[in-house]
Structures are given as structure tokens and as C-alpha cells.
TrEMBL record:
Keywords from the named record: Ribonucleoprotein, Ribosomal protein, RNA-binding, rRNA-binding
Organism: Novosphingobium endophyticum
Domain (KOW): residue spans on this chain: 5-32
Pfam families referenced in this protein's UniProt entry, alphabetically: KOW, ribosomal_L24
Family to which this protein belongs: Belongs to the universal ribosomal protein uL24 family.
Classification via SUPFAM superfamilies: Translation proteins SH3-like domain
Full protein name: Large ribosomal subunit protein uL24
UniProt signal peptide: none
UniProt cross-references to InterPro entries, sorted A to Z: KOW, Rib_uL2_dom2, Ribosomal_uL24, Ribosomal_uL24_C, Ribosomal_uL24_CS, Ribosomal_uL24_KOW, Translation_prot_SH3-like_sf
Gene3D superfamilies in UniProt: 2.30.30.30
GO cellular component, one term: ribonucleoprotein complex
GO BP: any one term: translation
Protein purpose: One of the proteins that surrounds the polypeptide exit tunnel on the outside of the subunit. One of two assembly initiator proteins, it binds directly to the 5'-end of the 23S rRNA, where it nucleates assembly of the 50S subunit.
Domain of life of the organism encoding this protein: Bacteria
Length: 105
């Protein structure tokens, strides 16, 4: 299995779909499904009936998983960039292709 180029906590840019161009942080990565959950992007609404736990009921909004190929790591200027791996000081680190900076996370 290949190493994960996008990890939890990364700032990403959406490349395609209804949320194209929007940015957000990764909340969860689902490597087996090839999906990622991004905060504030691909928000699904669910109508909830009133229950004893939630007497108000109403519309619940939660971010839904989206394909990992539709997002790219955001560079320091907010533009999308690809990620490559390099060995620095004996450690394997992620590096942004456009700027050459190491990615924290």
C-alpha cells in the first residue's frame, strides 16, 4: 500500500465538483475507500424527527466523505500542489512540489 499523501489536519483545496476551489482542513481519511472528509466541504443534510434525546429535531448538516483524488494539499499561498516524499536527516518527509517546502502534519 502506498504512503498517504494527504493526512488528517492538512489544509486542502477541492479540485472538482460543486465545491471546486473551496478550502478546508481534513477531518478524517478513509484509505480503504479512497475517500477523505473535509471540514465545511461536501456537506450532507439529514432531516431528523424529534426524539426524546433531541426534542427539537430539525435539519442536521454533516460533512460527507469525498474522493481523495478530488482534493490537493494547499501550498502556503493557498493554491493546490502535489506532494512528493524526500529523505531529510534520515527521516521520510512530505514535500510540496511547487514550493519545495516540507509539509507539517
Amino acid at each position: 500500500m502506498a504512503a498517504a499523501k494527504i493526512k488528517k489536519g492538512d489544509s486542502v483545496v477541492v479540485l472538482s465538483g460543486k465545491d471546486k476551489g473551496r478550502t478546508g482542513t481534513v477531518l478524517q481519511v478513509l484509505p480503504k475507500d479512497g475517500k477523505v472528509v473535509v471540514e465545511g466541504v461536501n456537506v450532507a443534510t439529514k432531516h431528523r424527527k424529534p426524539t426524546q434525546v433531541n426534542p427539537q429535531g430539525g435539519i442536521e448538516r454533516t460533512p460527507a466523505p469525498m474522493a481523495i483524488c478530488k482534493v490537493a494539499v494547499a501550498d502556503k499561498d493557498g493554491k493546490p500542489t502535489r506532494v512528493r516524499f524526500e529523505v531529510k536527516d534520515g527521516k521520510k518527509v512530505r514535500v510540496a512540489v511547487k514550493s519545495g517546502e516540507t509539509i507539517d502534519g
